[in-house]
Design a protein that fits this description.
alpha+beta, 6-stranded mixed β-sheet, 5-stranded antiparallel β-sheet, 2 helices, rod-shaped, transmembrane helix, transmembrane, membrane
Length: 232
């Protein structure tokens, strides 16, 4: 790179010497033309020298600290170093002309994404996760929220989403609707908890324990109240 810069400086020196010599020996009209050429040429050469200082060996581009490297003609997306060792990436949301920081790489080699900036896992922009805010992490598939992890490490599954316990997707727990919690085995709902009432064999319990089907008891039945058998 130093050899390239030296050659440019040498060329600039030769051009200036040539122009000065001709300004002293040529006619007034020629002098005016040479002056115009000088005004146009020298800044271009100086700019070339500056640009060359940014391009290192192996076609590397060196951007000085504090300078922004814009990726579009509207200055909406750019990369820059606020100080030595840290790199920040800025983009502008659709409909906005104000760039916002999206990602940072620190001098320690770590990186982070700004809050509420999704990290997409597919090319269709449908599967992603992001920090919702206050250390709350959201996971989404098919562009729908599926799982939340709270700052207290609590895990929240989105309503209508199932928590499977087998690879065949047959045994699961799901929050089907509202406050209703279903437990399924082999794809069949066996126990339902709905607003404090438990249903076995049915999904709409009307009593604290509502059983549909036969009951087999092995042992004693102890009751502190009346026992009614039949249509009560």
């Amino acid at each position: 790179m130093l050899g390239t810069i030296s050659n440019i400086y040498l060329t600039l020196y030769i051009v200036i010497q040539f122009l000065v010599k001709n300004l002293l020996t040529h006619t007034r009209a020629m002098k005016k033309s040479l002056i115009i050429i000088t005004v146009l040429l020298i800044p271009s050469l100086i700019g070339l020298v500056y640009a060359t200082t940014l391009i290192g060996s192996g076609d590397n581009v060196n951007i000085p600290v504090g300078k922004k490297f814009f990726l579009d003609s509207n200055s909406k997306s750019y990369i820059w170093q606020p100080f030595e060792g840290r790199v920040e990436f800025y983009t502008s949301p659709f409909g906005s002309s104000t760039p916002q920081r999206a990602m940072t790489i620190t001098e320690a080699g770590t990186f982070w994404f700004e809050s509420q900036k999704p990290i997409y896992l597919d090319g269709g922009v449908n599967t992603f996760f992001y920090e919702w805010g206050n250390d709350h992490i959201v996971f989404a598939t098919n562009n729908q929220q599926a799982l939340h992890i709270s700052p207290t490490q609590d895990i929240w599954i989105h309503p209508t989403k199932r928590l499977y316990f087998d690879a065949g997707f047959n045994d699961y727990i799901s929050n089907t609707a509202g406050n209703r919690l279903d437990f399924a085995s082999n794809g069949v709902t066996t126990i339902t908890v709905n607003e404090g009432k438990v249903g076995i064999g049915n999904t709409a319990p009307t009593q604290a324990l509502d059983v549909t089907g036969n009951i087999k008891l092995t042992g004693n039945i102890v009751s502190n109240g009346d026992i009614c058998i039949g249509n009560c």
